[in-house]
Task: structure prediction
Amino acid sequence: KQEVTQIPAALSVPEGENLVLNCSFTDSAIYNLQWFRQDPGKGLTSLLLIQSSQREQTSGRLNASLDKSSGRSTLYIAASQPGDSATYLCAVNGNNRLAFGKGNQVVVIP
Amino acid sequence: NAGVTQTPKFQVLKTGQSMTLQCAQDMNHEYMSWYRQDPGMGLRLIHYSVGAGITDQGEVPNGYNVSRSTTEDFPLRLLSAAPSQTSVYFCASRQQGADGYTFGSGTRLTVV
Result:
């Protein structure tokens, strides 16, 4: 069974700092890995999708890396803003199942 | 495109009642799935379908039924609701195995 762990569970950073969110998984036989954002009481918004053959993916201030052999992914958010405050979820896609971590709860302090 | 549409958004049930959570997608996705999200537990897979007429169990299937008669729709049925089924339910879909998932906005269910 795929186990996904996200560290840290919660963090607060001052506005302007770079955010680094970590995700680890136990089974490297994956199709891809997807990072989502979830605001309180809302649904999941897809941020980045990294295929198993890729090393990284970028969108604006967001960059996600993937090291499949070591079972790790990192989401970088550059120059954080208060609007980045949310929970970030890492999800690993394999064998018709999406396995989620419990999330990184982020607060960006103005 | 509407994407993945879930109805209702909120529901309160009494223990023992039945209901169906609706999920529809207009992207012609073959794969659809249901997740529940509980505090401290993360999102867990209930049931999934790889195409019309094909369904399979996920991690927490007990107490839930599904069917897939069309590509567009994947309803989740609670036959006899229990307080342990109080949760937020999300439906998701994707096209092919290596595609990303699109999620609906969720149904918040309370069983009293």
Remarks:
- Chain A touches chain B through 21 residues (CB under 8 Å).
